[in-house]
Each structure stands twice: as structure tokens, then as C-alpha cells.
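Throughout this chapter, every protein is written as a compact record of paired, labelled lines. The reader may check this reading against the record printed directly beneath this paragraph:
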Amino acid sequence: MSRAPEFIVLTDAAARAVSGTNSRHAALLEDAFGVLVETPGGGVQLSGDAKSRGMAKRAIQALASRADQGLEVNEADVRVAIGQARIGSGAAPGGLPGGRRGQSRRRPRGRGHGPQVLGHGPGFAGRFGGRE
């Protein structure tokens, strides 16, 4: 396999997002894909085998797309991009989920999920077992 470096041209905002604070995002990408990520300016240079570079490139492009849209790129976004690059998905624009964060999925209404009614159920005999 080829280990020749590959240069990906990025905007300044995208290059900063891919690198991350103190190169934290670049380190996550390096650990995840076994590549070397360098940011010489004007983009990112990837070194490693072809398969690893391809996966890292997909993750970097997803992060760059998010940054170019003016959205913040944080460590969670990097981890999502890594996961999606590994499995080859990316249906959302930029390959990352958009919209509001922290939403929980809607639970089906059924037994045990409705409002709880507090009180004594049938057959409750009270403190003295029905004797007073």
C-alpha cells in the first residue's frame, strides 16, 4: 500500500477546526485511523496507508464542511465524524448530525410510561391490616 502523503486543501476556518485547540482534534484523528495529520497551512497533510488516509479524509471533509457552514466543531463532533467515516455513513449534510443537541428520543406511550398516580391501590389494608 502507498504511504505517500496526501494534501487536502481547506479554508482557514476548516483547518483550525480539524486541528482543534492544542491539536486535540488532529490527535484524535491520528489515533483513530493510524495516520499522521499535519497542518502546514492552507489545508491538512495526511500520511499513512491508503485505506486509513481514505477514512481520515472522509472525517476531515465532514468536519471541514461543518466549519465552513459557520458551526462550531468540538470533540464530540470529531468522534462522530470518526465513527461515520469508519462505517461509511453520512446522510446528514456534512456527514454530521445537525439540529439541536441533547434531545432525547420520544418514548412510546404505553404501560409504565404515562403519568404516575400516587396513592393506595386496590387491596390496600392500611397500617393496621384493615383492623382499626
